[in-house]
Amino acid sequence: MNNIFTGLGVALVTPFKKDFTIDFDALATLLEKQVEGGADFLCVLGSTAETPCLSVAEKLQVKDFVIEQIKGRLPLLLGFGGNCTQELLHEVRDFDFKGIDGILSVCPFYNKPAQEGIYQHFKAVATEAGLPVVVYNVPGRTGINMSAATTLRLARDVENIVAVKEASGNVAQIDEIIAGAPDGFEVISGDDAITSQLIQMGATGVISVIGNALPREFGAMVHAALSRKADEANTLDGRLQPFYPLLSVDGNPAGIKAMMSLMGEVENVLRLPLVPARRETVDALAKALQLL
User: Fold this and answer.
1) How many Å apart are CA 15 and CA 265, to the nearest integer?
2) Facing residues of 133 across strands?
3) What's the predicted TM-score (pTM) here?
4) Catalytic residues
5) In the prediction, which pLDDT does 277 show?
6) What confidence tens digit (pLDDT) does each residue in 119-139 have?
7) What is the rounded CA–CA span in Å between residue 196 and residue 231?
8) How far apart are CA 212 and CA 209, in angstroms?
9) How would you class 25 by CB atoms within 10 Å of its CB: exposed for 0-12, middle for 13-18, buried for 19 or more?
């Protein structure tokens, strides 16, 4: 099974109104911006979407709204993970995946399974789902790192596990995965700040945060790197480097929502326990936007 989630993928935020309800008008505008800005695929209901703070009904509303708005113009990757394998398998069996092209499934969080447990979890979920699966390694959120050996074992053993979103920040580990990947399995960057480097090492794309605000600019860098235009990619990446630490210093999606609010695209509203970025971060983002 081939991986279609290549190039610029964007981990969509969930816009909220000042009363904390979902702002579907802002979401529609954001989706059209991604299409017009040259995004290659969209990631729906990932961590950037504040998914843990959405009700089950709201998640379904967002999923259905995105499918209807996009109308097949871009592939859709749906966040679908958990730390109780049996419960997740029940959810997969009952879920309507019509209009969804694949799922992004995060490493089981908090209960910190062994590598064998991670392997068995993803194997079971992928087998039950049937459609393409991108496994997601993000130790900073989950408390556990999926090793290169486990990732490659899954890549070899489970046909519909087509890629890994790697957000460990461990370049040596990511290089080991790229070097050992079987045909049809690819690495997707989960860290905007090192995406240019990872693509030049052999990654095939990114699931991006900054792409919410700057799909055209960040996408130009991604596509230059994929076209092996290293100097151009590095130049474009250099212009965006001031943003990367600002988007993470107060947590995600606090930074990107602050940036998009400055651009007049969403309200700077998050649901507790997440809170908006600090004033000094907002001021620094405003200055960076002026210099872009």
Assistant:
1) 9
2) 103, 161
3) 0.96
4) 136, 165
5) 98
6) 999 999 999 999 999 999 999
7) 11
8) 6
9) exposed
